[in-house]
Amino acid sequence: MNNIHLRPYHPSDLNNIIHIFTEAVHQLGIKHYSPAQLSAWAPSKPDRQRWHDRLESMVVVVAEQGATIVGFIGYDGAGLVDLLFVHPAFTRRGIATMLIQAVERLAFTNGVSQLQTKASMVARPFFESRGFVVIAEETVTIRGENLRRFAMDKIIKPTQ
């Protein structure tokens, strides 16, 4: 992972972020969600203004390999990990771990002692491997499709 570095999100990253999100949802979610659910979650024509507003409202850390964005995490500053996606071509390389560790350090430094997330069925095992615990199973309706997810949380400590 020596060639992966983390940096803050810039508005010029928007198209790459949307692309990573869409590819990750459609390629990694296929075993857990139907095509209709995947299309509702990550439509082929994303709302760029909604994405811009969402990303501007949180702390976003981008993972790059060279000049290529390979993943990102979004954190609201108060404990909610709202987004964590890695491009499918770069999964299983520790990038998601680097991103969540960066948020854990940032959160702890800012006095936050607990993180929460709403993990998809795809993301649940990763979050569990990082010490998150399922609090509740939920169903969220997106564009008329019901998707299963998990409310999870984790107490963070300075050694993480």
From TrEMBL:
Coiled-coil residue windows: none
Q: Which Pfam families match?
A: Acetyltransf_10 (PF13673)
**UniProt cross-references to PROSITE patterns, sorted A to Z:** GNAT
Domain named N-acetyltransferase is located at 4-157
Top-rank taxon of the source lineage equals Bacteria
SUPFAM superfamilies in the cross-refs: Acyl-CoA N-acyltransferases (Nat) (SSF55729)
**Name of the protein this chain belongs to:** GNAT family N-acetyltransferase
